[in-house]
Amino acid sequence: xxxxxxxxxxxxxxxxxxxxxxxxxxxxxxxxxxxxxxxxxxxxxxxxxxxxxxxxxxxxxxxxxxxxxxxxxxxxxxxxxxxxxxxxxxxxxxxxxxxxxxxxxxxxxxxxxxxxxxxxxxxxxxxxxxxxxxxxxxxxxxxxxxxxxxxxxxxxxxxxxxxxxxxxxxxxxxxxxxxxxxxxxxxxxxxxxxxxxxxxxxxxxxxxxxxxxxxxxxxxxxxxxxxxxxxxxxxxxxxxxxxxxxxxxxxxxxxxxxxxxxxxxxxxxxxxxxxxxxxxxxxxxxxxxxxxxxx
Amino acid sequence: xxxxxxxxxxxxxxxxxxxxxxxxxxxxxxxxxxxxxxxxxxxxxxxxxxxxxxxxxxxxxxxxxxxxxxxxxxxxxxxxxxxxxxxxxxxxxxxxxxxxxxxxxxxxxxxxxxxxxxxxxxxxxxxxxxxxxxxxxxxxxxxxxxxxxxxxxxxxxxxxxxxxxxxxxxxxxxxxxxxxxxxxxxxxxxxxxxxxxxxxxxxxxxxxxxxxxxxxxxxxxxxxxxxxxxxxxxxxxxxxxxxxxxxxxxxxxxxxxxxxxxxxxxxxxxxxxxxxxxxxxxxxxxxxxxxxxxxxxxxxxxxxxxxxxxxxxxxxxxxxxxxxxxxxxxxxxxxxxxxxxxxxxxxxxxxxxxxxxxxxxxxxxxxxxxxxxxxxxxxxxxxxxxxxxxxxxxxxxxxxxxxxxxxxxxxxxxxxxx
Amino acid sequence: xxxxxxxxxxxxxxxxxxxxxxxxxxxxxxxxxxxxxxxxxxxxxxxxxxxxxxxxxxxxxxxxxxxxxxxxxxxxxxxxxxxxxxxxxxxxxxxxxxxxxxxxxxxxxxxxxxxxxxxxxxxxxxxxxxxxxxxxxxxxxxxxxxxxxxxxxxxxxxxxxxxxxxxxxxxxxxxxxxxxxxxxxxxxxxxxxxxxxxxxxxxxxxxxxxxxxxxxxxxxxxxxxxxxxxxxxxxxxxxxxxxxxxxxxxxxxxxxxxxxxxxxxx
Lengths: 295, 418, 266
Fold this sequence. Notes:
The complex is a heterotrimer of chains A (295), B (418) and C (266). Chain A is mostly helical. Chain A contains 13 helices and 2 strands; from the N terminus they run H-E-E-H-H-H-H-H-H-H-H-H-H-H-H. Chain A has a domain at 59-239 and 267-290: Orthogonal Bundle (MetI-like fold). Chain A starts with a helix and ends in a 7-residue tail after the last helix. Helices cover 80% and strands 0% of the residues of chain C.
């Protein structure tokens, strides 16, 4: 009997902590969104908060904006991350560069910059009065400060997309690299014996092996960019706001608006949960790390 | 076994930091005369109780010169003279302070962490309505009684709401516009002139979007001028009456919108963003409630040396900002003593000096001693700051803060969404 | 010789990507911290200025406090994460039992589901328990977003351990603690280090959670950075960012050093 309950006991501490702090918080948020907020004198359950926001055009505009921005950011980061890690990998295989560890570290620089600073860096570079604009002037591409396209604080969210891509591409390549490392040297040699050149090798062997991890990592990035707050707050636009910013601004408004704020939050949670389920389906082997799958 | 020692030492260090981390952030509160009695007690008793206390001042933290005035000028002198330690807590937005207090009030937290806060206007209104304040204390402060003109309407009323002594006036602000003399020869001095100006200079002007404080104020200026003056707003108006007056305002703002920065498709989120645009030359004008801000920003290199300020011919909004004590302040006696010091002539004159902050005093210059008045007049406020008499003769009163949110919502409806 | 040319091509692509994407923002950051606003279209500042750094050094900037608080919270969170994650990662990767999948899902969810919604919800409860405005409360709130990373890193390590080694140890008479210290621990150490790095990074980078729970009393570097980054003063924002980057890099490097020390002593 004892050995059987051992794994449960081992999981207990972590579970208890996460359930109390994380799920407890979500639960309280849910309750508040349903209108039960004794602190503000509301103690009846109702879904009026949800009907209110689902009916409001503000919410839907924010939703589509957020969806679009996260999708594009994720795709760009995924492609970039994939290319980065494969290039590094192929170079190390052919042993042509002793600089590989250095490059790897360099690629991970965006990690040591927090998201809100990353957002601010994008501002430094991409505003009309930013660095790239000045470079463009000196290279002769533009003549007037207003000729430089508007990339930050504009309704399409380009600045946000750029900031996320810069920060998340290294994340994806970090996830992929260990998978690549598990490709045995002998496979590359065997492939060559069969007449495949490096490009074929990449296409037929490397890429398919990476797919599960790549998909999972991309889903994680998608969920993250959909629900993160700091970058859109700094780089976004007056109207429409991205969903997490909308949630926060409602939260710090009137106490009477609190249920609406929490409702937006819960909706964000639901959406990311759905994304998570999809990620799990694709990357089941990745998560369990049972040794048979490719992490 | 050396490896073990390494691990053990590491563990100890980490445990210590956990414990230390748990201990930081606590505030001490003295045992004391009960809070209610504090408001009745003699000043000397209040001062005695305040000795040794630490007070937390919650205020906006995005200005290095203001931060340094508090930390490096005020705090050491307060400590020396009254043995009260002043701790400044930087905040991003005053609204966050109010929200914190609201949440604490809901949770019945009797001992908070905020002793004093820098607020006015809408935030004061919310605090009063939600019972977030300590009580009427201004009348107890010796410096307030001696140097402040407490009866004057622009001190006794905060955006139309009587302060009832629950907040003490700390400084005065007047709205000015900032422009770059090198690029703009003749700045527009009225809304009408502004409309012509933006047509001739497209993309070079914008204003922060409400609910930013400054942006909201700009709109009120436009409101005064496009709807026939400010007097009509001093009466009690209900929402429909107010809204019915505003059509000319929305027309005006929509007319100038296509000539603004980014064709008005977006507005800078905050004054700070507008300042950035101005500093880098993307727009040619900025604005704000601090007549000396331009000088400050020239001195620290942010603004070009050719930045100057102007007021509208018809006058600009002028208001007072205050310090208040929340209901659950852990050291209210210390807070009162600190506020009293901040109202003293020496602190106010130092605040007026652009070397430190460069902001208008809340105390009445007429009540100063001759010596102090000489000190005041010796201060040079810099090339970008308008002289005091120009400012004083172009003052307009603020409207009630309840109207402010109606106007802000109206802007979102009628201008932003178009 | 297809290979060689392909390799060269890849090298070029790599370097190009690298430079543009990673380095350019960093350069502008460094320049931004040492200069004042430059009127367009200057490419290089007229004159350098240490104004932002004078402010940093002055006590007003609270940089020292913030560094200490940020680090101690991150370290505390990481230690707790290790203690929680080692047993559960062990259970999940080496044992098989009913409900394992559900437990994994529950534990990994905070990577996907944003923590700030949960923090907004739990705020009032924290208030009532007196956990707001304290570093301890902030530390508790940091556990949720960082724990999953630690668990995952450890699961990868445990995944290659299996039971055989411990079995042998047991047969040779080693007791549970000894088996752990001499067999399991060395094997999972790389996982602990990787997990710790991620955990520290996540904790150091938090803004919204620290702000909501800390209420202004808990000063970390992101808290100080925010008002300046949202427009207040770009030079000082750049300076704070560099301080943060230095802090994060130092934390990661410190972990690396510890790992090397450990390996050298073996």
